[in-house]
Amino acid sequence: MREVGNRGTRGRKMSSGKRFFYNIVTLILVVVIVFCLFKIGKILWGYYEGTKTYDHVAKIAGIGSKDSDHIDFDKLLSENPDTKAWLKLKGTNINYPILQGASNDTYLHRMFDGKYNPKGSLFIDYRVENPFQDFMTIVYGHNMKDNTMFSHLMEYKNQDFYKKHPKMLLYTPSKNYNMYVIGAMYIDAAAPQYKLFFNESEKASYVNWISSNSVIKTDEVASAQDKIVMLSTCTNVDENGRFIVFGKLVER
Predict the structure, then answer these.
(1) Distance of alpha carbon 173 from its chain centroid, rounded?
(2) CA atoms lying within 13 Å on the CB side of residue 173
(3) What's the whole-model pTM score?
(4) How far apart are CA 83 and CA 241, in angstroms?
(5) 216-232, pLDDT tens digit by residue?
(6) Sign of the Cα pseudo-torsion (108, 113, 114, 115, in order)
(7) Residue 196 burial (10 A CB sphere; 0-12, 13-18, 19+)
(8) Half-sphere exposure of residue 190, counting CA atoms within 13 Å on the CB side?
(9) How far apart are alpha carbons 126 and 208 in whole angstroms?
């Protein structure tokens, strides 16, 4: 009888041990789920805050409708002196100010109001001395999963999208431009084509390189005398992968 009783006691102890183990595993899983939900919630809240901020900036700029051509640069500059331009691509979410900081880190994860946010801002390479007046102006922006900032640039890998959106609108404090798309392509972040300073022969070679390597066929071509804008964003596939869209400026 004692042997039977001992076996029953050992069985009960093993059962209690298993329950304890399962409880620990369950607790760990709950903690992991809560942590993941917290991280997801934080990301979504950042998206919301960023969108709300840029909606407010649009109001500061005086954009009363999607077709409005008026940008109140006086108000924008009073809010942020780093404002250099405004970029709009009709039919998409690209409708933002373009800033230029003291370094390329300044607005990488900071918005127009200077607050930290994963969306960051659209910003000009800090080395550009005369934005949109030099031969080459490089503008960076994030490819966000909520289809904001430069996410719609990726659409230019499709010929049909280009046909519907052959130009963007660029506004500066002194001039307004049509920015005609002249090429789009994938490129590495360390590629030598991220270039700002050219002599005359290099300019001609560069615009030929754009047309030769574009993944789409465009109706516009550029020359060494044009003002070129490179719009650059991450591909979100390869850590060093970038997708770039080139445009040439034509004053309106």
Answers:
(1) 23
(2) 13
(3) 0.81
(4) 28
(5) 999 999 999 999 999 99
(6) negative
(7) middle
(8) 3
(9) 26
